TrEMBL record:
It comes from the Bacteria. Residues 1-59 are annotated as: Disordered. This is Transcriptional regulator. It comes from Gemmobacter nanjingensis. Residues 22-33 have a biased composition (Basic and acidic residues).
Amino acid sequence: MSQPDDPVLPSSRVVKPAAKARTAELSREDRLKAALKANMARRKAQARARAAQDDNEKE
């Protein structure tokens, strides 16, 4: 009994090394963008909290 050969994937499913590197680069960029957005949101919230605290102390 012979073993079946490895199936041939369609060219659209084959990931070339350059494409894989580009995908990893985009993934890294997406992670950095998300981290920056979260950091900015956190800092803005902190600034608003400080401003509200300062307003309460002045009254």
